[in-house]
Specification:
Helix content: 25-40%
Number of helices: 9
Strand content: 25-35%
Shape: globular
Radius of gyration: 22 Å
Structural class: alpha+beta
C-alpha cells in the first residue's frame, strides 16, 4: 500500500458521532513513521529540558528532535540559543553529554570550535583553504523559548508562534506558580509500542481510570470529570474527593482539582496541589518509544512525600503498560 493510500485511509472531516479510530497502518508503517518525524516532530514546538538547567551563562544541554540533534545554550549575554549538534566539517556529533557548562563548543573529531551562539570560531590546520569563510559556516540555528519551567525548541524554518501552540495552557495555568516547583527526579520507560499508543491512552483518561487505575479513580470525583479540546492541546480535569480514603494515592494527590494537559504532539503535564509530573514521549521506531517522566514538588515538600508520590506515578504507569 502506498503512503498516499495510507493517509487517505482516515477521514478527519467526519462528525464526532461517526468518527473512527485512525487506521492500524498509522501505527505500524515505517514510511509513515519517517514522515511523522519530519512533519510532526520537526515542525512543532518540542520540550527539550527545563529552563533551570540553563540558569547561568555557559550552561548547555542536548536533545534529539525527530532525526535532528540539538544543542541549547545560554550565552555570555544571558540569551538562549538553539542550534544543530552536527559539525559543519565532517558531520560528526559535536556534544555527546546530556548537559554541562563550557565557554565554547568543540567537536572532538577535528577540534572545530563554536561559540555559545553556534558561530564557528576555530578551525585547526585549515589555513589557506580557498572559498571558505568562518562566518558562513556557523551551526544552523533554531527557535527556542520557555513556557514556565519548560524549555522548547522548534526546528521549522518558519515556526508557528509559541502562543498558538501553548496559549490555552499558558492562560489556564499559573506559570509563575509552576516555575516555583522544584524538579526532583527523572525516570524513563522504554515501551514496545508506537508513540501514539501512549498518547491515545493518555487522552482516553477518564474512560479507563476507574477500571485500570482504581486507586487513582478513588481519589477523583469521576461524575465531574471533564474534557476540553483546543487547537493543539487538550485538558482533562476532575475535582478531587474531599472524603477520599487515606491510601497512598489520596495522601499524595491533594488539592481541589487535578489537571491533565496534553500539548501536541507528545508532551503531557499532570498538576495537583504542590505536585507536578510531566510525560514526554519520544519515538524510537514504528513500534518503540521512550517515555520520560519528570517530577516536581513544592520546595517545602518532605522527602517521604516525594518518594510516595513517585511510587504512585510508577504504579499508574505499570497499570497502563499492562493494557
Amino acid at each position: 500500500m502506498s503512503l498516499s493510500d495510507i493517509l487517505k485511509g482516515f477521514n478527519p472531516e467526519l462528525p464526532l458521532e461517526q468518527a473512527r479510530t485512525i487506521p492500524k497502518t498509522w501505527y505500524t508503517d515505517r514510511e509513515l513513521y519517517d514522515l511523522e518525524l519530519k512533519e510532526v516532530f520537526e515542525d512543532t514546538w518540542q520540550v527539550v529540558g527545563r529552563s533551570e538547567q540553563l540558569s547561568e551563562p555557559g550552561h548547555y544541554l542536548t536533545a534529539t528532535i525527530g532525526n535532528e540533534g540539538v544543542i541549547v545554550t545560554r550565552d555570555k549575554e544571558g540569551k538562549l540559543n538553539a542550534f544543530s549538534n552536527v559539525c559543519r566539517h565532517k558531520a560528526a556529533k559535536i556534544v555527546h553529554e546530556a548537559c554541562g557548562k563550557s565557554s565554547s563548543i568543540q567537536c572532538r573529531y577535528h577540534g572545530w570550535t563554536y561559540d555559545l551562539k553556534g558561530q564557528l570560531k576555530g578551525t585547526p590546520e585549515f589555513q589557506g583553504v580557498q572559498n571558505f569563510e568562518k562566518q558562513d559556516n556557523g551551526l544552523p540555528a533554531f527557535a527556542v523559548e520557555t513556557v514556565g519551567p519548560f524549555l522548547l525548541v522548534n526546528l521549522a524554518e518558519k515556526p508557528e508562534s509559541l502562543e498558538a501552540a501553548t496559549g490555552e495552557f499558558s492562560r489556564r495555568m499559573d506559570l509563575n506558580k509552576l516555575s516555583q516547583l522544584k524538579w526532583s527526579r527523572r525516570t524513563e520507560y522504554d515501551l514496545n509500542c508506537n508513540w501514539k499508543v501512549f498518547v491515545d491512552n493518555y487522552l482516553d483518561g477518564g474512560y479507563h481510570v476507574n477500571t485500570i487505575h482504581p486507586a487513582l479513580g478513588g481519589s477523583l470525583d469521576y461524575s465531574e470529570y471533564k474534557i476540553e479540546t483546543y487547537e493543539g492541546s487538550c485538558l482533562q480535569f476532575s475535582p478531587l474527593k474531599k472524603d477520599a480514603s487515606t491510601d497512598s494515592v489520596s495522601r499524595v494527590r491533594q488539592g481541589d482539582v487535578a489537571y491533565y494537559w496534553w500539548l501536541m504532539p507528545n508532551f503531557m503535564v499532570n498538576i495537583y496541589e504542590g505536585v507536578m509530573d510531566t510525560n514526554l514521549v519520544l519515538p524510537l521506531g514504528p513500534d518503540k518509544c521512550r517515555v520520560t517522566f519528570d517530577y516536581y514538588f513544592s520546595e517545602t515538600t518532605k522527602p517521604e512525600f516525594i518518594e510516595e508520590s513517585i511510587q504512585v506515578a510508577h504504579q499508574v504507569q505499570l497499570e497502563d503498560q499492562m493494557v
